[in-house]
Specification:
With about 325 residues, the protein is of the alpha/beta class. It has 12 helices and 12 strands. Strand 10, helix 10 and strand 11 form a beta-alpha-beta unit. The chain is elongated.
């Protein structure tokens, strides 16, 4: 029976499905794997089901010139923590779980848009602190979303799902910056220049993949281009944003606010960011719904089963 390592505990339904087909070991820790653990996994398992934070970089693969592991079935759509070229050179297939995360992540983007624009987190903190003195006409005035323009940076599956919700749900105008124009079921304006997009919208949502190409894509120059009332939302990867530049923009009032589900050095969040009132901070919960995590896990197991049955995995990257 093939030996498979799950690098984190997964929902019971997923673990049971994996155990029906494989000799499964579940790593008990919920933190990312250490380098030595990753090397051991490549040496001693036929397959590994890694996830965010398990940094399978080129050096890890170089330490195991003849790996027993033949497939990394990543739990998640993003796989920038895996050097796919180095894995391929080592004879290791990499898969992911696209589609399963789209709607859940888009929903969290809308949560952040609403919370930031309507200052919901500030209001909740006020109530919990016992500081609310009652309704009055100028309290916590935020931005109404109806008729405003949302800008999507990265119009892939998740970007399109966010745009659809904003347009059909709130009547927002849609603009976007992407590697190529998209055919969409609603009117949207494509911008070839990111800074032009940033300057034209009321809400800027980041939905690009992580990786070297998008590292610090959203930097000080983007914040300078944004309108002072505009809000930034990030549900992509933390290092797509220059976090220090974001702190400076928020402190200076260069932008109206921000909503974040991911961070550049997570789980560490800068104290300066925590101290700010005009930012909503969520603990990377973009796909944190039981049925979504089950679907992600079952998709990973399907990729493993196909691979070991001699078929092409449905979600190779």
């Amino acid at each position: 029976m093939r030996k498979v390592l799950l690098t984190r505990p997964l929902p019971d339904k997923v673990q049971m499905a994996a155990e029906q087909h494989f000799d499964v070991t579940v790593r008990a820790q919920t933190t990312a794997m250490s380098r030595s653990e990753m090397i051991n996994a490549l040496q001693n398992y036929d397959a590994v089901l890694p996830t965010l934070g398990d940094m399978f970089d080129a050096d890890v693969f170089a330490q195991v010139p003849q790996p027993r592991c033949k497939i990394l079935a990543n739990f998640g759509v993003g796989y920038n923590h895996i050097d796919v070229d180095a894995a391929r050179a080592a004879g290791i297939t990499v898969t992911n779980t696209p589609g399963a995360v789209t709607d859940a992540t888009a929903d969290v983007a809308l949560t952040l848009i609403l919370m930031s624009a309507r200052r919901a987190a500030e209001g909740e903190r006020m109530v919990r602190a016992g500081a609310w003195e009652g309704w009055h006409p100028t309290q916590l005035l935020g931005m109404h979303l109806g008729g405003k323009t949302v800008g999507i940076v990265g119009m892939g599956r998740i970007g399109q799902a966010i745009a659809k919700r904003c347009h059909l749900g709130f009547g927002m105008q849609v603009a976007y910056h992407s590697r190529s124009p998209k055919v969409l079921p609603f009117e949207a304006t494509a911008y070839g220049d990111l800074h032009a997009l940033a300057g034209a919208v009321d809400v800027l949502v980041v939905a690009v993949p992580g990786g070297a190409e998008t590292h610090h894509l959203i930097d000080a120059t983007v914040f300078q281009a944004m309108q002072p009332h505009a809000h930034l939302v990030n549900i992509a990867r933390g290092n797509v944003i220059d976090e220090q530049a974001l702190v400076q923009a928020l402190e200076a009032g260069d932008i109206g606010g921000a909503g974040l589900d991911v961070y550049e050095f997570e789980p560490r969040v800068p104290a300066a960011l925590i101290a700010l009132e005009n930012v909503v901070l969520l603990p990377h919960i973009g796909t944190a719904a039981l049925d979504v995590r089950e679907e992600m896990g079952l998709m990973s197991v399907q990729n493993l089963c196909a691979f070991f049955d001699g078929e092409a995995p449905p979600n190779s990257v």
